[in-house]
Request: fold
Amino acid sequence: MLYWMTQFADGGGIFNLFKYITFRAGCAFITALIFGFLFGRPLIDLLRRKQGKGQPIRDDGPQSHFSKAGTPTMGGLLILSALVFATLVWARLDNPYIWIVLLVTLAFGGIGFADDYAKVTKQNTKGVSSRIRMLLGLVIAGLATYAAASFHPAALTGQLALPIFKNALVNLGWFYVPFGMFVIVGSANAVNLTDGLDGLAIMPVMIAGATLGVIAYVVGNFNFAEYLGVHFVPGTGEILVFAAALFGAGLGFLWYNAPPAAVFMGDTGSLALGGALGAIAVCIKHEIVLAIVGGLFVVEALSVIIQVAYYKRTKKRIFLMAPIHHHFEKRGWAEPQIVIRFWIISLILAMLGLATLKVR
Reply:
């Protein structure tokens, strides 16, 4: 929104700074962070008063989780509020990719909010039907993918870009829309499955978001894209502002979510943030790189899929409990130990994802 102030820049001066994506991204980070610090505690107090018993705890979960009973959920409202506010203030609102990512984030956040509300009011862990959540997610993802493809350059429309291989494209044609739906919905649900320990999901989301933001900036800059041999997608550089706001909002939330958590992000946050990562990947044509950068989320989701499929076939379990972070809990790992080691893995995967820009 404040980009309009560049009209006062007559060849220089402080208003000229608003032209630069990097400057506005830095301001978006600070704005979201301060927003989180200012409104975090009042929101948590409000959620605690409204929810009473807080998020219900699974009966079959690790015993240590019963000590968390009464902790309020829907903390994702803090993340989304800070993220949306900072993005609207500092991003160019005439950029279609900003609106695609923002609307996907809010739409998936709405699905998560409905699920959290049902769990809290009914005091059980079932919430909204998984079929309804999946159907709504697919509709949102389909519309977002179609919109993103319509703004992509003609040479990239319906194409899947392959990392590492220079100028390598796979023509998916109309199948690109279902593919994009799979990326966005899969990302949303993978982050949702990862959100099971205090601070476990938010930091990897921040790391993945920051990494995709850097890639978006490179992809949206003709000179950088040409030098690195990646496909140039005009306008996507603005997504860096959104990614910076996400990082700031995430830090503000982590202040209250660090063990022992004062609030859980709930599906309101996890579905929204996962959907945001998927939408960014589709917009910048780096869907496969998302699987590398967000590899931790992929492993978490695969552990559930493998566990369910194997159990249905053999009535036995591969993991002590799925998702896989609960498996390590069952093996005696302390919660902070799991969380920090998973953060380290996320950082390593982010570096590998960034390396794909140079390895061509």
Observations:
- Residues 20-291+350-358 form one domain.
- The chain has a mean pLDDT of 91.
- The beta strands are 159-161, 169-171.
- The chain has one domain: 20-291+350-358.
